[in-house]
Specification:
- This protein is α/β, with parallel strands linked by helices and 396 residues long.
- The protein has 3 domains: 165 residues, HUPs (Rossmann fold, 3-Layer(aba) Sandwich), CATH 3.40.50.620; 137 residues, Argininosuccinate synthetase, chain A, domain 2, CATH 3.90.1260; 35 residues, Single alpha-helices involved in coiled-coils or other helix-helix interfaces, CATH 1.20.5.
- The chain has 14 helices and 14 strands.
- The strands form 3 sheets. It has a 5-stranded parallel beta sheet, with helices on both faces. It has a 5-stranded antiparallel beta sheet with strand order 10-9-8-13-14.
- The structure holds arginine.
- The site of arginine has 12 residues, from α4, β6 and β7.
Length: 396
């Protein structure tokens, strides 16, 4: 009789490699691994590895395009930056991973999904809440959370079963997709300690960045970036290109002590060159095209939306409602932004938009001024009336 099946989210790393025999033995099940490329994964080598350690099937999917168009760009339009620092790269990938896992479980009639998250992080919550939303009848197994093995135990367990494991794993825990690289653990756990250079991979250190500034021009249509320096690009190419360009100038290094959903404060380093650059450019185009009321309300919505993403609530009506508002605000967020990158900074130095609310005739101090100065007097009288009355009657 065929054994029951479990779909395992498989990265090819130590934890999920050890999980394959562990799940087989503990649940007397066949394991189907699923590896998803959200940016920089060599799918074929990981697939071969999964098969070599006894997976029944090793599935792979290229999720880059979906990640960009359904998750990253909506988040850019919304301006979602968690606690003012983190552009949410890891958090945005998780709901998509949950979706692919549920699809694979359905297609292969698996009764359960297994993942390699620990019991201390946000990612277990994001994946499991995502699975609960999309596949409410599918069981979830979290071996790393359940088995209580230390890293050395894992290595011993793996070596005893002849698994191809790499015992010199980095001292950092990392996660990456197109929107950024997240790094934690090791000496980063001391929040007083300056991150060592080898914690970084995508960005040049200050001393290696060019002495001269570089400029880049980004064209947006309805809040979505479409071209760089006049060249139209797909979302994936555009993000890759900006990661290189901004990374070379040291842009996008973030050192954040953040509040996790599970109540722990953690210190994490992020490298998000393209995301940092695009958020900066996008918000400067909004400054040209949104009214003051829209801009203020949208900033509040952005904070709520960022919490929703961080806290694993992507598949909710609340998220869709926030998104509907955001999409409506983006109708006229079309135009160009010029950004200067230099020694780790990115600064907007020019912006233009066909539907800009910025009006030169009203703003200028020179002879072409169209503003009616005489109307200011009456405006101030009425505007200041309550202040005048209050101070006449209640001055102390
Ligand atoms: N703290 C970030 C988040 O919750 C990233 C988590 C994954 N980071 C890692 N280094 N493995 O979104």
């Amino acid at each position: 009789m065929a054994k029951p099946k479990i779909v395992l989210a498989y990265s090819g790393g130590l934890d999920t490699t050890v999980a394959v025999p562990w799940l087989q033995e503990k649940y007397d099940a066949d394991i189907i691994t699923l590896t998803i490329d959200l940016g920089m994964v060599d799918l074929e080598s990981i697939r071969q590895r999964a098969l070599s350690i006894g997976a029944l099937e090793a599935l792979t999917v290229d999720g880059k395009d979906t990640l960009v168009n359904e998750f990253l760009f909506p988040s850019l339009q919304a301006g979602t930056i968690y606690e003012g620092q983190y552009p949410l790269a890891t958090a945005l990938g998780r709901p998509l991973i949950a979706r692919y896992l549920v699809e694979a479980a359905r297609e292969h009639a698996a009764y359960a999904i297994a993942h390699g998250c620990t019991g201390k992080g946000n990612d277990q919550v994001r994946l499991e809440v995502g699975i609960a939303a999309l596949g409410p009848n599918i069981d979830v197994i979290a071996p790393i959370r359940d088995w209580g093995m230390s890293r050395d135990d894992e290595i011993e367990y793996g070596l005893a079963r002849n698994l191809p494991i790499n015992a010199n794993r980095s001292r950092f825990s990392t996660d990456e997709n197109l929107w950024g690289r997240s790094v934690e653990a090791g000496e980063l756990e001391d929040p007083w300690l300056e991150p060592p250079e080898d914690a970084y991979d995508w960005t040049s250190s200050w001393s290696d960045t060019p002495d001269k500034p570089s400029y880049v021009e980004i064209h947006f249509e309805c809040g979505v970036p479409k071209a760089v320096d006049g060249e139209s690009m797909t979302g994936i190419d555009l993000i890759n290109h900006l990661n290189t360009l901004a990374g070379r100038n040291g842009v996008g290094r973030i050192d954040h002590v953040e509040n996790r959903l599970v109540g722990i404060k953690s210190r994490e380093i992020y490298e998000c060159p393209a995301a940092t650059l695009l958020h900066t450019a996008h918000s400067s185009l909004e400054a040209m095209t949104l009214t003051k009321d829209q801009a203020r309300t949208k900033a509040r919505i952005a904070q709520e939306y960022a919490d929703v993403i961080y806290n694993g609530l992507w598949f909710t009506a609340h998220r869709k409602d926030l998104d509907a508002y955001v999409q409506s605000t983006q109708r006229f967020v079309t135009g160009d932004v010029r950004v200067r990158m230099h020694k780790g900074t990115c600064t907007v130095v020019g912006r233009q938009a066909p539907k800009a609310l910025y009006n030169y005739g009203l703003a200028t101090y020179d002879r072409t001024d169209e503003f009616d100065h005489s109307s200011a007097e009456g405006f101030i009288k009425i505007y200041g009336l309550s202040v005048r009355t209050e101070n006449q009657v209640q001055s102390d």
